[in-house]
Amino acid sequence: MIRGVYAAILDFLFPARCPECGCYSDRQGQWCQTCLEKIIACRRLPVPVPAYCVLPQVDALARYQGSIKRLIHRFKYHGDDISLAYLQTFLQQAMQTLPVFSVDIVVPVPLYFVKEQQRGFNQTEKIFHPWAQTNGFLWQAVLVRKRPTLPQYELNRCQRQENMKDTFAVQDKGIIRGRIFYGR
User: Fold this and answer.
1) DSSP class of residue 31?
2) 81-95 vs 123-134: helix axis angle to the nearest 10?
3) Total-model pTM
4) Which of 101, 122, 148 is the last residue before a domain boundary?
5) N or C end: fewer C-beta atoms under 10 angstroms in the chain?
6) At what angle do helices 66-78 and 123-134 cross, to 10 degrees?
7) Under 8 Å between Cβ of 121 and 84
């Protein structure tokens, strides 16, 4: 009851708006249809030959710029739950534009434990876990991050590859053996 009243007051004081154009929307997390269609830019990314045997397909849902970049940054570094709602709405809509694919499990990319303790959450889990559940995919945390890494945005392509080399390990190979998985 109190939570509902609090939400109504916040909606009155800070009405929901599209994060791209700023027009009013019915609820927090909702984009206007025009902006959502403009932001969704699904495309297949090239996979280097050595990685192809374990990761045959990589799809980008949008360009990392503008409102998407701002929302990810506000959520990842400031824990902004309203940004999370916009990202989850975007994800649900963008994934509907991709061809249907068969997946046995969804594997999240873990943070280094110190970074997760500092931040208080793993943004990958917060954004993608509800999507996986809604779509009936098994969420399986089978990777462990063995060491800290530098932020990828500060590095060029070669430095990124070196930065990520030998960073992850599979905790239980039996869980993923013979399965089709979707890494996030």
Assistant:
1) P
2) 40
3) 0.81
4) 101
5) N
6) 110
7) no
User: Cα-flanking dihedrals φ and ψ of residue 17, to 5°?
Assistant: -140, 155
Q: Does 121 share its domain with 94? A: no
Q: Is position 41 within any domain? A: yes
From 64, 82, 62, 79, select the one nearest 19 (Cα to Cα): 82
- Pick the closest to residue 40 from 99, 110, 92, 111 (CA basis): 92
Run of H or E residues at 4: helix 2-13
pLDDT in tens, 129-144: 999 999 888 898 888 9
The answer to whether residue 6 sits within a structural domain is: no
Q: Which residues form the domain of 177?
A: 102-184
Quick one: tokens of 6? 């609090």
Instruction: Give the number of residues written for the chain.
Output: 184
**Which of 14-18, 39-43, 97-101, 139-143 has the weakest average pLDDT?**
97-101
Residues 115 and 156 in one domain: yes
